[in-house]
Design brief:
The chain is α/β, with parallel strands linked by helices. It is 24% helix and 19% strand. Strands 1, 2, 3, 4, 5, 6, 7, 10, 12, 14, 15, 16, 17 and 18 form a 14-stranded mixed beta sheet that branches. It has a two-stranded antiparallel sheet with strand order 8-13. Helix 5 packs parallel to helix 6 and helix 9 packs parallel to helix 10.
Length: 450
Amino acid sequence: MTSIHSLPVELLARIFFLGLCDDPEPDQQLPGDPTFEVLASHVCQYWRDVALRTPNLWTTIHLRTFPHIDRARHYLARSTRHPLNVIVDTCTEDDYQPGHLLFRDEFLPLFDIVTPHISRWRSLVLKVRDLTCKAHARTVLSTCGAAPILDFLQLWHIEEWGSPERLYTAIGPPPVVVFAGSLPSLRTISLIGVNLPWLHSPFLTGLLSIELALHSDDVRIPFNLWRDMLAHSPDLTRLSLTYSGPRSKTGPWTLPERITLPALVHLRLTDLDPPYLCALLRTIHAPALRTLHLELSDQDFTPFARMLSSPLPAPSADPAANPDEGLTIDPTALPPDLATDPDHEPESASEPGAGPLAALDTLSIAALDCSLASWRALLAGLWEVSVRGRDEAGVALEREMAVRGEGEVLEWFQDEEDEEDEEGEEDEGSEEPHGEEGDESDGAGDAGQL
């Protein structure tokens, strides 16, 4: 029998790399569990020699506990000149244990280790849960300089404010320019409870994925800059908005015509007001949209549901042909045609594919409060759509959506027991309501300047 030691070094290194790809994401790994690259390098001397000479095994710099700081030094040396994935995850004040988790005292020293390698940063995930750590983050990102190959950026600030008053008094100084305004390779951006100096962030172009979450209106991106960001990202495939989006309280949105996003496939909308949602939908044309996730509760979203089932005018083929025509949309009020006749079913509802969801194949609903008539119109306007729910791991599960009537408004929710039902089996209802859907506006991130 041929020994594994007879494998060529290149083949064994490839096997190691494939094993690394199957390892859990750093955030999903149990504390204390060794990573794959560490396990592979501790099997025998031969494997260790091969692993230590395989730089792409050591390119994820995950910093969450105090021992990770010393580990980072070794990984940086072993990765040689390969691109790096940097993950910095600090704790809350209540969870802090000196010598174990990372908090205020460890924040700047750990960046002293990784910042000299900024030219190799391929991705950065930075999570802070404390105002002092956020101040340190401002210092680091405003002085580190450009990151020429960074293509993934997630900045995350979530904190338990306790009350709206404490949140209001915690609003800090204006956001700072990050990475000297130079991220020429950026393709994915995720800002959760963090905002940027939008006018001085020229790297918000050519994006493939955008996630914005937990921003009060005063720190959101102005609509004209939002419009430019989308217009200059024609290959955008993913857009996720959770209590965020373009600013709405500075006046109506104006644009020559709807913004066409020809490559947008996945759209997620969570915790947004009905007038705002309707206005947003009127500004976007996404002919290739395949997956729509909705998590909308605690308000009547009947106008939005009706709008999804109604045809929207297609963008002009030549906007310059009618320079005096354009769109002026008030994101704080429903348009007249949606503010009346709440039980009206659009005439196009019986024509599959006529609405803005014509190309949709997956509709994922965690919560949607709307009238029965609008729900029927929405379903009638869909064409070959698979209605899905998702469990906590994000795995798609075929289910039926149960309905609970509350007067004229229906609340749509997921039944946990439906996960065990056979595919295609119809369910009459459910006794279990959907999970708690708190309004993030009173929680973390509303004042998230960075």
